[in-house]
Amino acid sequence: MSVVRASGQRPPDDALPAYPGSPEGVETRSASGSSGAARPVGRRWPWIATTLLGLILAVAPLAGGMFYPAAQGRAMIADFAPYMTTARLHGFTADLQRLDAVRAATTRVDTALGTDAAQYRQIGQFQQRYPSIDADMTAMITEIDGARDDYRRLAQLQPLDAIPFIPLGFGLVLFATGIWGWRRTRAGRRPIGAAVIGSLAAVALLATPLLTPMVSDADAAGPLVTRFESVLTKQKVRDVQGYFVVLVGAVGEIDSRYLADVHRDSATSPQRAQVAADVAVVSDLSNRWQLMSSDFASLIGTMNDNISNFTGVARLNSRTESLGFGTFAALPWVLIGAGGVAVVLVGAGTAGARRGRALTA
What is the pTM of this model? Predict the structure, then answer.
């Protein structure tokens, strides 16, 4: 010690004695001047960005109100399933054509027998109004028929109410992974666990739309909404209900007295052969009316029950229209993009940790 005082020189650091009981982790300096204390290993910003990305993904379906409209979409798809077949829709078309044939047949019968139109007011109303009823109902069935392919594609995404849980679930995983990776890096430890879980979550998020029908079929929601806009409205349901009242009244009058009166009056008519052929057409309607009316009533009920469901789905899909695309069409690409960004971020955090480890080794 006297030598140090005499010369004025400070002994090298590695010559200083170590004192017993010194707390572990107290920073000492080696001859090279490097620190032996724990230091952050790698970059922390990728994990911070991963946390923010996860938060955005988790909050988006909640802030965007996706859950209830998605459940409404599932209910609407399920309710319309019995009607979205070629056989069922062609059956409705055939029924409309049958009703048109009955209108023409009763008109010919009335002309042949000189029937007073005021005598059968329900039938007269049917004869007068059915051309417009037929045109409107045919247009409606045509719209539904034209939506079958888009309906089928959207049905491939069932259950629709599970879709909002995809960004929510992956968002929560990435949020927790980002915090875990940031804390490990800040403590000077390699974020191995966070890197593994984050990588798996990122790849799964990216792959989910690609391995499911989301990419190929999610854009069907827009055309389906467009076609159903003229079908699932309160006014349309009221119109169809009014048509149904006209048809029920006419069939009731046909069954109650029209056919019996025609049989009686046509017995001596010189046109009884033509009248008999027309009566057969009218009788066929009477025989099939129970099934026809049940089908029409069921369709009207389904339309009425799904007005609010359709409105919810349409509003959800229109929330991104100002950007030039529908919400459903954009969703798979948002998930793919978020997954790709997450892969890059986790990779950056992991690579930074390896370099940081090498530098401190």
Answer: 0.80
